[in-house]
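2024-03-11 09:14:02 INFO worker-7 job=invfold-0412 stage=load source=structure_tokens
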């Protein structure tokens, strides 16, 4: 009896593990991952719906859409992409905006970066990683 029971149980366990692993997102923070419905510029990156951003980031998006006013002197300045986390573009293509961080006395680590082609990116770790912001 054990001769056929152990391989079957092992097979079921391995099959369950494969289903579990294949269904897991690569984004451990619960945000969306890049999908086939994402715009071409966002493919291959983690994504987040604009409505799922922190309240302060949504306020920054509204200010960007309205053309200001911006609370920080560096808002709207050129983002140079020195970290090379975003696709390479000519200098001046990207611009950055501060996302207020409650409790921080300075600008904090959160930013929104926009591209001249309509791209919007969010970082909460001072450019170490970005999520493409999906706006509808």
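2024-03-11 09:14:09 INFO worker-7 stage=emit residues=136
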């Amino acid at each position: 009896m054990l001769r056929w029971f152990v391989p079957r149980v092992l097979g079921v366990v391995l099959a369950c593990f494969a289903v579990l692993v294949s269904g897991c997102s690569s984004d451990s923070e619960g945000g969306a991952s890049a999908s086939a419905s994402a715009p071409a510029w966002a493919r291959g990156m983690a994504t987040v719906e604009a409505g799922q951003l922190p309240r302060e980031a949504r306020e920054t998006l509204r200010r960007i859409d309205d053309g200001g006013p911006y609370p920080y002197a560096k808002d709207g300045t050129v983002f140079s992409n020195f970290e090379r986390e975003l696709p390479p573009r000519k200098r001046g293509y990207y611009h950055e905006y501060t996302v207020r961080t409650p409790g921080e006395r300075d600008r904090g680590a959160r930013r929104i970066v926009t591209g001249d082609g309509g791209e919007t990116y969010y970082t909460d770790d001072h450019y170490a990683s970005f999520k493409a912001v999906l706006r509808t």
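2024-03-11 09:14:09 INFO worker-7 stage=report msg="The domain at 41-134 is CATH 3.10.450.30 (Nuclear Transport Factor 2; Chain: A,)."
2024-03-11 09:14:10 INFO worker-7 job finished
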